[in-house]
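Report of the visiting student (M.T.), summer placement. My assignment was to run the structure pipeline on a short list of targets and document each run. The first record concerns Glycogen debranching protein GlgX.
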Amino acid sequence: MNIKVYPGKPYPLGATWDGKGVNFTLYADNATGVDLCLFNTTKDETESVKIRIKERTHQIWHCYVPDIEPGQLYGFRVYGPYEPANGHRFNPHKLLIDPYAKAIAGTIQWHNALFAYQVGHEDEDFSFSEEDSAPYIPKAVVIDPAFDWEDDKSPNTSMHKSIIYETHVKGFTMQHPDISEEIRGTYKALAHEATIAYLTDLGITAVELMPVHHFVSDKNLHDQGLNNYWGYSTIGFFAPDVRYSSSGVLGQQVREFKEMVKALHKAGIEVILDVVYNHTAEGNHLGPTLSFKGIDNCSYYRLTENPRFYMDYTGTGNTLNARLPNVLRLIMDSLRYWITEMHVDGFRFDLASTLARELHEVQKLSSFFDIIHQAPIISQAKLIAEPWDVGEGGYQVGKFPPGWAEWNGKYRDCIRDYWIGADSMLGEFADRFTGSSDLYQDDYRKPTASINFITAHDGFTLHDLVSYNEKHNEANGENNQDGESHNRSWNGGAEGDTDDEAIISLRNQQKRNFLTTLFLSQGVPMIVAGDEFGRTQQGNNNAYCQDNEISWLNWDNMDHELQQFTASLIRLRKEHPTFCRRKWFQGMPVKGIGLEDIAWFLPEGIEMDDEHWQHDFARSLAVYLNGKGIRSLSEQGEKIIDDDFYVMFNAHHDTIIYHLPPDKYSKKWLKVLDTSEATFDEETVLQSEDEIPVKGRSVVLLKAI
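After the run finished, the structure tokens were exported:
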């Protein structure tokens, strides 16, 4: 093939098609040479053309190749010293994936050639492999970015009005009876009318997709016949994973992803991506050489004092070095690309504490946060942190800066403890229910900083939370040693499946208790897909490698009663701003009314004092929520007025008689819901100071009339 090569430009990074050819660039500071390798088909075992890139501007290698079109397959070979003891792992026998690839055609085919050293050699990674990895590694794809968005706009739902639904692209539709088998498990299936109808009927405002960045299924899982289902092992931060494409691998996956976003936006549903910028799929010093490690190991990873080894704050073998300008640029370029080109609305950052580490400590004012706040596009997206990592001092709940929301692990733990009857202070329950002001208020953050959740992908489903005392991860092949052992769960009297009607009834009631508490709490509620209809993983609380019926949603086994209850809860929350306030409760009288915006009561109808909050044995309390004390204006600048509500929580196992408060709070109350029953009921009317029996382990909600 007669190929012309021009100098090209150092920016933008990656492969950029301009209609006449492609500009290729690669950041590799310590490299001594770079080859651009072009392939004709995905089945080619070696490149058809190898181009030595001669131009270098600062640390960026670049060239322009005319007449190349979208769909072109390519990779890089990078030259330099192979000196693991000094942190250098260059090996031109290894074809490398472009870190800025917008599409990747295929997946890793595990083979010893993917390792820069000779696997099994007594010198381990000090040995050197000359076996070509090209036949086994997927190739990057030049894409055509053109797409007709048809005036697509983000729903731009305010955080305080958001209902987040964490789901998996594949697992959500793999068993959906109304979606054709040939597209199940794909971006197209998530955009299907049946999917969108379900989400809108439920009341979801945002789907939070588990990782869709192109990822690698780990070799140890492959060797066991398992698969990385969750996808927290990224190798391409710009490429939508090809496994979820129904339309092709040569860039079609990009278009299909965009079609999905456009369809969801049209239905008023935002798209939030779970992103993994803390590490890559290349593992530790004995891991494969797929991209960054071979391009310039020292310029991408955190290395220890002995540069042969990696800092591991993630439990995966390596940690990307977000202190380095080129890594920060990679992360920011990736985020900006997904917002501007793919139209996503926000991000949930996996193990976000890792990104905030300067030398070793987690710093609130690290370079990562500084640059995020200065980015006009990225700073306006929804930014959600998983505020912990596995390193020392990594648990940072409540410590991220303004502008960030956090998965509130303390909310999860407290609400679980309360409903299973564990020793926990009522004061903490009140803090969590009202938005966790103890965590966020001092930093001028709002209740929306708290992403409230009972369950997530990592851990028990809601059904399993009330059905198992112990994890049951035998299918993972690790002798049930993996996964969290302290789950704050309770099986109700039998482990797993049971025919005991009393236990089944109790479990269903507990599900309603958890969901009701979640959707009546201040903050932003998040549920994991299937919890609303009783999805089970048979007690597996770490189903990361279960790409099968254990993880996939079983639509034929839906608990319709629970699903309708959940939809009604969401509708109630949306209709009443009392439950989704933008500002904190003040505990002060509302002007012109004389009643506080919030007041807490004992079952006897007496307001709680300081002493009552310190009891770890107390299980029963009530809260008055003043709908005239919201202290916020609507988007039209009008004062927000809502109904008053009275919520009675009884986590005790016996029925307790509650005395309603005096008539200054309300002369009449309408019973809205009772979790001891499965339906909403607005027929029962009560008078002030009436007695009302609240059954054991239940919530009763009253509305003032």
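The mean pLDDT is 95. The CA atoms of residues 581 and 630 lie 7 Å apart. I thank the supervising group for their guidance throughout the placement.
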